[in-house]
Amino acid sequence: MQRAMQAPAHMQRITKVVVVTRRAVAKKAALAVAKAALPKKVATSQSKNF
User: How far apart are the first and last CA of the chain?
Assistant: First the structure.
């Protein structure tokens, strides 16, 4: 229990890295699914949204 209290900054650094990596992986996965699953429908929806 005392060790957990001694290293809050180290845990914050790890959580920041995890959040960044999760966002990057989520973006890559979303792009891969969008390109692979339904190219025509995704293309039309992207043209409308963007």
Answer: 50
Tens-place pLDDT, residues 12-43:
888 899 999 999 999 999 888 888 776 666 55
Dihedral sign from CA coordinates of 49, 24, 30, 35: positive
C-alpha to C-alpha distance for 12 and 35, rounded to whole angstroms: 35
Task: Provide the sign of the torsion angle of the four alpha carbons 20, 18, 21, 41, taken in this order.
Answer: negative
Cα angle at 27 between 34 and 17, to 5 degrees?
165
Three-state secondary-structure class, residue 50:
coil
Does the predicted model carry a pTM greater than 0.70?
no
